[in-house]
Design a protein that fits this description.
The protein is an all-alpha fold. The chain contains ten helices and no strands. Belongs to the Nth/MutY family.
C-alpha cells in the first residue's frame, strides 16, 4: 500500500469520525488506567458498568487500597478474571502510592513496571490520557492493519512499528481510536461489513463481503 492511499484512508476515517476516543468511561488518568487494566478479555460495556459502581466509591489509588482486596472484588466481580485483575490493580495502586505520589507516571518504562500493564496498556495511557502519538495494537487493530494492507506484520509489535512509520503525522494522535472502532463495528473478524465501509475501495483485502 502506498503513502497516498494510506493518507486517504485516514482522511476518510477522520471525516467520518472527527473526534474519536475510547469507549471506556474515565475522567482522570488513574480512572483510565484502572479501566484499561479491567478491560482485558472483557467488553468496554461490561467494564463501564463495573466502574460506574467502583469509581463513585474509590477512584484514586489510596481509596482503592482503603477498600481492601475483598472490597474491590465485590465492586468488579461482574468482570471476567476479576480475581486476578483485582490483585493486579491493588498492587498497582500500592506502587503508585509508594513510588509516584499517587499519580499515574507519564513514561513508558514506569507504566510497564506496573502489574498487569504491558506495552498495549501503556500505549493507551500515553495516547489517551497524556496526548502522546502512540498506537496501541489490540486484536482489532492487528486485524484491520493486516487485512486492509495498512501495515502488515506477524505480531503486534511489528504492526505497531509499521503503523508509527506509515501513518501520516497529522493522523497519528487519533489513529489508534479510528482503527479500533473500525475493527469493532465495520471490519469484523468473521464477516467484515465491506458494503458499508467508508474505505472499501482503498482496502486491499481480496475477499470482500458485500454487506
Amino acid at each position: 500500500m502506498n503513502a497516498q492511499k494510506r493518507y486517504e484512508i485516514f482522511a476518510r476515517l477522520r471525516a467520518h469520525n472527527p473526534e474519536p476516543t475510547t469507549e471506556l468511561h474515565w475522567t482522570t488518568p488513574f480512572e483510565l488506567l484502572a479501566a484499561v487494566l479491567l478491560s482485558a478479555q472483557a467488553t468496554d460495556v461490561g467494564v463501564n458498568k463495573a466502574t460506574a459502581r467502583l469509581f463513585p466509591v474509590a477512584n484514586t489509588p489510596a481509596a482503592i487500597l482503603a477498600l481492601g482486596l475483598d472490597g474491590l472484588k465485590e465492586h468488579i466481580k461482574t468482570i471476567g478474571l476479576y480475581n486476578t485483575k483485582a490483585e493486579n490493580l491493588m498492587k498497582t495502586c500500592r506502587i503508585l502510592e509508594e513510588q509516584h505520589g499517587g499519580e499515574v507516571p507519564r513514561t513508558r518504562k514506569a507504566l510497564e513496571a506496573l502489574p498487569g500493564v504491558g506495552r498495549k496498556t501503556a500505549n493507551v495511557i500515553l495516547n489517551t490520557a497524556f496526548g502522546e502519538p502512540t498506537i496501541a495494537v489490540d486484536t482489532h487493530i492487528f486485524r484491520v492493519a493486516n487485512r486492509t494492507g495498512l501495515a502488515k506484520g506477524k505480531d503486534v509489535v511489528e504492526v505497531e512499528r509499521k503503523l508509527i512509520r506509515h501513518v501520516p503525522r497529522e493522523f497519528r494522535q487519533d489513529a489508534h481510536h479510528w482503527l479500533i472502532l473500525h475493527g469493532r463495528y465495520t471490519c469484523l473478524a468473521r464477516k467484515p461489513r465491506c458494503g458499508s465501509c467508508v474505505i472499501e475501495d482503498l482496502c486491499e483485502y481480496p475477499n470482500k463481503v458485500d454487506i
